[in-house]
């Protein structure tokens, strides 16, 4: 499937706050993500707590260790709305 991608202001705020080494790694992972957000290399998984809160299925892609990017899919649009540690699951 061919997706369109959008990132929210909250995502960009948290992305720019990351150390440069994590930003570089995130950029590498997002190259894969833009080809397929469910690529096995990203270990994408559902986040039940955020899915309940948002009333839609929310996924997290693993950037490294405890660093995740969270997103949801609306038709052909992938909305990435946050990036950070597991603490971003607590809204």
What name does the CATH topology carry?
Answer: YaeB-like fold
Number of continuous helical runs = 3
Straight-line distance between termini? 30 Å
Strand order of the largest sheet: 1-5-4-3-2
Report the CATH superfamily: RelE-like
Task: Identify the CATH class.
Answer: Alpha Beta
The number of E-state strands comes to 5
Rg (CA only): 12 Å
What's the structural domain tally? 1
pLDDT averaged residue by residue: 94
Q: What's the architecture, going by CATH? A: 2-Layer Sandwich
Q: What level of helicity do the residues show? A: 25-40%
Structural class: alpha+beta
Keywords:
91 residues, alpha+beta, YaeB-like fold, 5-stranded mixed β-sheet, 3 helices, 5 strands, 35% helix, 32% strand, globular
Can you offer a commentary on this structure?
With 91 residues, the chain is α+β, with helices and mostly antiparallel strands. It has one domain: 2-Layer Sandwich (YaeB-like fold), CATH 3.30.2310. 35% of the residues lie in helices and 32% in strands. It has 3 helices and 5 strands; from the N terminus they run βααβαβββ. Strands 1-5-4-3-2 form a 5-stranded mixed β-sheet. A hairpin with a 2-residue loop joins β3 and β4 (67-74). It is globular. The model has no long low-confidence stretch (mean pLDDT 94).
At a glance:
With 91 residues, this protein is of the alpha+beta class. It has three helices and five strands, in the order E-H-H-E-H-E-E-E.
């Amino acid at each position: 499937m061919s997706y369109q991608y959008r990132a929210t202001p909250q995502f960009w705020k948290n992305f720019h706050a990351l150390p440069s080494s994590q930003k570089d790694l995130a950029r590498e992972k997002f190259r894969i993500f833009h080809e397929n957000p469910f690529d096995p290399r990203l270990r994408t998984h559902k986040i039940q707590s955020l899915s309940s809160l948002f009333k839609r299925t929310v996924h997290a892609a693993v950037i490294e260790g405890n660093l995740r990017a969270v997103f949801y899919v609306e038709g052909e649009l992938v909305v990435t709305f946050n990036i950070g540690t597991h603490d971003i699951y607590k809204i």
